[in-house]
Each structure stands twice: as C-alpha cells, then as structure tokens.
Amino acid sequence: MAKKGSSPLSNCFDSHFSCLCIVKIKMSQSLAKQCNEMKERYDTCFLKWYSEKYLRGSGTEDNNECSALFKEYSKCLQGALKERGIDKLLEDAREDNKENDTLYLGRKK
Length: 109
Description:
By secondary structure, the protein is mainly α. It has helices at 36-52, 67-84, 86-96, 98-105. The protein contains 4 helices and no strands.
C-alpha cells in the first residue's frame, strides 16, 4: 500500500524485482460525450494489449485484439465530428498540409 502523499507507482519498483504495475489511470474523455464509454473500453483494451503483449514482443500492430473496439469508437467519433462540422475543417487542414506530410512523414501525395 502506498504511503500517504506518495505516487501509486512508488511501490511498483524494487531493486530486486522487475515487475509491471497496472494502475487504474483516468484517461481523458472523448471529444464527443456519447462516445465516452466506447473510448474507455478501447483505452483499457489497448493499454492491456500494449503492456502485456506488444512490449513483450508477442503482439504486433497488425495483430491487435482491440481493433474492433477502435473501429466502433472511431465510427462514433466520426459521426460526432460530422455533426459539428469539424470533419470538414480536418479535411481542409490535411489538404493544406499535404506537402509537409509528404516531406516530413514520408507519405505519398
């Protein structure tokens, strides 16, 4: 148990043992309130997959069991962005920065 005023991670590290501590961290909310639950499910799944599989070499980006949750959240978020007219602003910003993306990120035009 962590001492009063100490970090929840302070007991996770020991000079004799290497351990992975899972700490319940409150993730940020979604841009769209109606997508919060989906985002929380995806975040929880992703953090578990990342720490338990990807970092240990047994998971790949292509083999991520959280993909279905991400698609569900993404669909909800895209609907909310479209509803607010933000989707058009994002498209315009991406179009305006295509050359920079190509130059700095190696993306094709």
